[in-house]
Amino acid sequence: MRRRRALLLAACASACASIALPPAHAATDDDSADRVPRQVVDPVPLKPLPGRLGYAFNKPDILLRQRLFGLAHGVSLLAAGCLDLSEHTVAVQHAYADWHARHAQALEAIVGDLATHYFGAQAGAAQWPDLVQALGLKQDIRLALGGFELSVACATLVAAIAKPRYDLTTLLREEPATALATIDGLPPPATASEKTAAPATAVAPQTTPAPTTESAGPTAPTPSPSSPPYAPSYAPFSHR
């Protein structure tokens, strides 16, 4: 079981997540004897450019890619976690492999754009974990799920990633506002022509409503860039 889980994590880290990997080198009789074992060294995490840490709320194109990356990270994290539950192993493996194959090109574009955004000239050296760290995403699926049970999340994963919210390829081609609305389960914003064509409605005179138990309560604070509302939204457990 641990081997299958490691293989899936490796697949995400290399096949769908790596940036600028060198081309595969086929071994030949000429160089096999001269090959020298290389020492494996853990890469030093890259540091984002000044002012680039977290979410780019003022750049819709980048914000969309950040949200899509978060979704992809959540899907891979949950898929790996589901391999510990034998009743979901086969279904999750097949669904994840199909989902990744359909969105591999979109993922490559998303990762490349975010690497450039965060690391500039060092983008070619960036790896998936560098982007996870730059976005502040959780790396433990149980922490990411919060109060949800892993078994419940795994039971819904196959159906969830078939929904428009996880269609990375389509969302990446859409206008950022429309795609972000889909991710958040909201109706698409009105276009300029729709706003122009909308008939004017009479505005009723405003009156001060009588206080109620609802209106007397505190209002929810407005999210700010210092406390982004998007950080936990990559979690793959979703009924949207």
Structural class determined from secondary elements: mainly alpha
Note the main sheet.
none
Using the CA coordinates, give the radius of gyration. Answer: 22 Å
> Helical percent range?
40-55%
Beta-strand share of residues: under 5%
**What multimeric state do the chains show?**
single chain
Low-confidence stretches: 1-11, 13-29, 31-40, 207-240
Alpha-carbon distance between the termini?
30 Å
- Average per-residue pLDDT, rounded, comes to 74
Write the H/E string, N to C. HHHHHHHHHH
Total number of beta strands:
0
Shape: globular
The total of helices stands at 10
Descriptors:
240 residues, mainly alpha, 10 helices, globular, disordered N terminus, disordered C terminus, signal
Concise summary:
Residues 183-240 are annotated as: Disordered. This protein is mostly helical and 240 residues long.
Report on the structure:
This is Na+/H+ antiporter NhaD. Residues 1-26 form the signal peptide. It comes from uncultured bacterium UPO46. Residues 220-231 have a biased composition (Pro residues). The structure is a single chain. The chain has 240 residues and is mainly alpha-helical. The longest helix has 31 residues, at 89-119. It has ten helices and no strands. It has a domain at 59-189 and 234-240. The radius of gyration is 22 Å and the shape is globular.
Write the layout of secondary structure elements.
Layout: H1 2-16, H2 29-32, H3 60-82, H4 89-119, H5 128-135, H6 141-145, H7 150-160, H8 168-173, H9 176-183, H10 192-197
Helix pairs in contact: 1-3, 3-4, 3-7, 3-9
